[in-house]
Amino acid sequence: MIEFRHVTYSVSSGEAEEPTTEYGRLRRAVEAARHKQGFGRRGRKFILDDVSFEVPENSIACIMGVSGTGKTTLLRLMAGLLQPDSGEIWIDGHNIVGLKEREMMEIRREMGFVFQYGALFDSLSVAENVGFGLEQQRRPKSEIAEIVTARLREVGLAEESVHRKLPSEISGGMRKRVAMARALATAPKIVLYDEPTSGLDPVMARVIDDLIVNLRERAGTTNVVVSHHLTSILRISNLVIMLHGGQIVAQGTPDEVRQIDSPVVQQFLEGRADGPITVA
Ligand SMILES: Nc1ncnc2c1ncn2[C@@H]1O[C@H](COP(=O)(O)OP(=O)(O)OP(=O)(O)O)[C@@H](O)[C@H]1O
Ligand SMILES: [Mg+2]
Question: In this structure, which residue's CA is closest to atom 18 in ligand 1?
Answer without folding.
Answer: 70
